[in-house]
Amino acid sequence: MQLMNTLGSPYTRTQIFRGPINAVSQLGNAIGDVVQGKKVDVSDAWMISPQTTRNMVPFLWGLDLSEKTPADEAGEALGGVIGAEAVGFALTGGGSALVRHSLM
Predict the structure, then answer these.
(1) Apex CA 71: angle with CA 66 and CA 75, to 5°?
(2) pLDDT in tens, 33-88
(3) What is the DSSP string of 54-96?
(4) Structure pTM?
(5) Residues 6 or more apart in contact with residue 79 via CB below 8 angstroms
């Protein structure tokens, strides 16, 4: 039941969109710091805020997200992982490999 609550949390869905974009931004910022010979500090990386995500994702409009339940807190981490896995699958050709193997 807890898994279903976590998967159904609106925070899970916001992180699916926001997590990978913010991670790429932090990675780019860290690479830039290394290239410039500075200490790596990703606190100044451009990030999509939770409020921006809520305004852009239609299924969150009108929801009261002022209180977080334990499922919401777990949903944030899980949503970021789901989003990252989806991006990794797409970028590494995982989809094309599945299609190739299913046709053989």
Answers:
(1) 90
(2) 999 999 999 898 888 887 787 777 666 666 666 777 888 889 888 988 888 888 88
(3) HHH-GGGTT---SS--HHHHHHHHHHHHHHHHHHHHHHTTHHH
(4) 0.67
(5) 9, 11, 12, 13, 14, 15, 16, 19
